[in-house]
Amino acid sequence: MKLVLNHDTYTAVLKEIVPSATRLLWLVTADLKDLHVEGARGKFIPFLEVLAGKVREGVEVRLVHAKEPGPRFRADFDRFPELIESDLFNRILCPRMHMKCIIADGRIAYIGSANLTGAGLGAKSDHRRNFEAGIVTDDRKTIAELMTFLDAFYLGDHCLKCQRRDVCPDPIV
Fold first, then answer.
1. What is the DSSP string of the chain?
2. What's the fold here for domain 2-164?
3. Using one digit for the tens of pLDDT, what is the confidence trace for 85-112?
4. Domain boundaries, given as residue ranges, for the chain
5. Is the pLDDT of residue 132 over 90?
6. N or C: which end of the chain has fewer CB within 10 A?
7. How confident is the model at residue 122, as a pLDDT?
8. Do the beta carbons of residue 136 and residue 12 sit within 8 Å?
């Protein structure tokens, strides 16, 4: 287990964990914005481009978030047909979701405070980003428990009993 703070969160999650995924990549966040990351030759690209690339590589990507992202995210999203057409990409909107975690292949995970936003996980300047703390773990038991919870969530186990269905824009069940 390793503690990551502030900019180290960007490095650990977006430069190490996400690129390492070869089978599955699960991303869970409360807030979701038009996040950019460093791409080839130092050029910054939308994180959605990274996710589209993962889908093209055959990686199953699940994205769970609590609120509808803004217009810049939606415009970028529409540029990547893989995210719309592929069965390997699934996006779930749940207003109760407040977790923040990233899991790659069931072998490494980030669990912490950072949302999938520029100020949270993104490549913002150290003087403009949020103060964040989290852990990166390869503890199989911890990751398995987290994945069991998220898989049950993904299948809608919590949806039928949820007392917030009246404000849910897209119930799973």
1. -EEEETHHHHIIIIIIIHHH-SSEEEEE-S-B---EEE-GGG-EEEHHHHHHHHHHTT-EEEEEESS---HHHHHHHTT-HHHHH-TTEEEEE-TT----EEEETTTEEEEES--BSTTTTS---TTTSPP-EEEEE--HHHHHHHHHHHHHHHTTTTTTT-TTGGG-SS---
2. Endonuclease; Chain A (3.30.870)
3. 999 999 999 989 999 999 999 999 999 9
4. 2-164
5. yes
6. N
7. 83
8. yes
